[in-house]
Amino acid sequence: MTRDPYRIWISEIMLQQTRAETVLLRYDPFLRRFPDVASLAAASLDAVLVAWEGLGYYRRARLLHEAARLIMQRHGGIFPSRFEDILALPGVGRSTAGAIASIAFGLSKPVLDGNVRRVLVRWLGEVPPMRVLWDEAARWVEAASSPGDWNQAMMELGATVCLPRAPRCLACPARDWCRAQGALAGEMRPRKRPRPLALIVRLYHDPARGIWLVQQPQGGIWGGLWTPPLVQASSPPSRRPDCVHLLTHRRLLLFAESAKAAPQGPGRWSREGRFALPVGIRRLLAAIGWENRL
Ligand code: SF4
Prior knowledge:
By secondary structure, this protein is an alpha+beta fold. The protein has two domains: 5-160, Endonuclease III, domain 1 (Orthogonal Bundle); 197-293, Alpha-Beta Complex (Nucleoside Triphosphate Pyrophosphohydrolase). The chain has helices at 5-17, 20-33, 37-42, 45-51, 59-75, 83-87, 94-105, 114-124, 130-143, 147-160, 279-287, and strands at residues 197-203, 205-206, 210-215, 226-227, 230-232, 243-246, 251-258, 268-270. The strands form two sheets. It has a four-stranded mixed beta sheet with strand order 5-1-7-6, with helices on one face. Strands 2, 3, 4 and 8 form a four-stranded antiparallel beta sheet that branches. The two termini are 39 Å apart. Bound molecules: iron/sulfur cluster.
């Protein structure tokens, strides 16, 4: 188990919104490309976004890059060891700061990610306000002889035993003091999925220059990333989509539309994978046989 704050930071940020199986595939290649804070800070944002491909929620990669530069400027390239300094890094919230501070530096700081929250709610047998849950998480970690091990064990318990829909109470080491023991298993059911979103993907290809890309506005789907021009269809075309892509919160129906007309407005050509493309767009290009045109 690593105590290197840089490696812990990268894994915690990756795990924030990406499934552990996906993170396992991307973590080592990312660290080979950026083995330390200095290499991450010195890289271009485009290079970081390319290395982040497949992890989704690219805002995290942008903030990671920003934070690495801040560590170079404010802390001389040494990962900060004070909780307040860790918490001040872009993209690091209280729970992530708690994980880094406890695992890398042995500080008694609580973690309250989705998994730990579910475990504590069940131990208490009720769903209290977040403030109470933070107090509860802090109380347990302060009593632990090894805060980092305690926080990791809690995250692991939530991820593998105290599962959202079917907690494995018979195999749980916390059975003796857990008030719920599975009785509240349904209290955090995911909300109903919103309707699928139909997108027309306008593809312009120039044999010498590649595919035409535009930058998506911040805040929308794939905000800040470069993609072929997208048009949201108010009602989906009557044909089958060329690609159906699942985001964690939305199902996208992607319809390719090739055009010969020269592109208008700001944008850039992409060849040889210079820019990070969302996985959904890569899958669409593969589905229509355009993957070699990048
Ligand atoms: S006993 Fe069941 S509900 Fe309670 S913490 Fe363990 S797995 Fe979760």
